[in-house]
């Protein structure tokens, strides 16, 4: 015998036909919602090289006093969240591309290429807890491993007495774009208006990278030129593909 008497069945608050109609409506709404979500296409990230130029920068005075890249703050603020890159870093890339467009228009380098490289090299100056300040200065300084000829590593004996990279025995790559001292001494330029060419400043590093790439690749709007420039920067097919993929994502306004 059951210890508890059976409870009477509760009647539905809704008459059968109305409940069925409501249930059918819910099913239709849910199905429509699912279809709507499925029909919203993901933004396709282009393949091939070179990557697209991305969102156009507005006209600025590249010789404006102080940090000229500050003129791009409105542009970068509207783009930073969608591509997952800090505003100051974006301003550095946009400014470098704008300078090259005015001073070496035959190159055609896009800010997306610089962003792709910086993403791979240092996560836009944020590797290992570093941060990009309002003037473009990256602190703490980012230094690569000693280039001592170990497995998979080139051997480059010290060229700066440790003055730039802190290593008096072997060279190390420096800053958000990872220049070795010898290359920086030849190509480094000041871009943030403080009168010093500093590999640890993302403005200076981005413009220096742009100058170097344009010199090495010539026309970066052509596949051959872009590939030549990237291979000169880092002689690795895997590296080239990784930069291309990230730059291509930035070109359509999404995160890699």
Automatic annotation (TrEMBL):
Its EC number is 2.4.-.-. SUPFAM superfamilies: Lysozyme-like. The keyword Transferase applies. This is Lytic murein transglycosylase. It is an enzyme of class 2 (transferase). The lineage of its organism: Bacteria, Bacillati, Actinomycetota, Actinomycetes, Mycobacteriales. It comes from Rhodococcus opacus. One of its GO terms (molecular function) is peptidoglycan lytic transglycosylase activity. The keyword NAD does not apply. It holds the Pfam family SLT_2. Residues 173-217 form the Transglycosylase SLT domain. One of its GO terms (biological process) is peptidoglycan catabolic process. PANTHER family: LYTIC MUREIN TRANSGLYCOSYLASE, MEMBRANE-BOUND LYTIC MUREIN TRANSGLYCOSYLASE B. Residues 44-68 are annotated as: Disordered. Keywords: Glycosyltransferase, Transferase.
């Amino acid at each position: 015998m059951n210890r508890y008497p059976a409870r009477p069945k509760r009647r539905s608050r809704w008459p059968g036909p109305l409940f069925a109609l409501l249930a059918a409506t819910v099913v239709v709404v849910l199905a429509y919602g699912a279809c709507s979500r499925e029909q919203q296409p993901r933004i396709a990230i282009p393949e091939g090289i070179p990557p697209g130029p991305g969102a156009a920068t507005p006209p600025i005075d590249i010789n404006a006093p102080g940090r000229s890249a500050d003129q791009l703050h409105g542009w970068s603020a509207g783009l930073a969240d969608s591509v997952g890159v800090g505003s100051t870093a974006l301003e550095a890339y946009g400014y470098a591309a704008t300078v090259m467009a005015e001073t070496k228009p035959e190159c055609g380098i896009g800010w997306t290429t610089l962003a792709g490289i910086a993403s791979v090299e240092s996560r836009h100056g944020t590797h290992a807890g570093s941060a990009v300040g309002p003037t473009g200065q990256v602190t703490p300084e980012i230094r690569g491993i000693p280039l001592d000829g170990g497995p998979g590593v080139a051997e480059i004996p010290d060229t700066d007495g440790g003055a730039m990279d802190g290593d008096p025995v072997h060279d190390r790559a420096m800053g958000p774009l990872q220049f070795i001292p010898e290359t920086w001494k030849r190509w480094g330029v000041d871009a943030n208006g403080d009168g010093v060419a500093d590999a640890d400043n993302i403005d200076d590093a981005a413009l220096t990278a742009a100058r170097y790439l344009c010199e090495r690749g010539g026309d970066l709007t052509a596949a051959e030129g872009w590939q030549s420039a990237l291979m000169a920067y880092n002689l690795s097919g895997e590296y080239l593909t990784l930069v291309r993929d990230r730059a291509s994502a930035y070109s359509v306004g999404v995160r890699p």
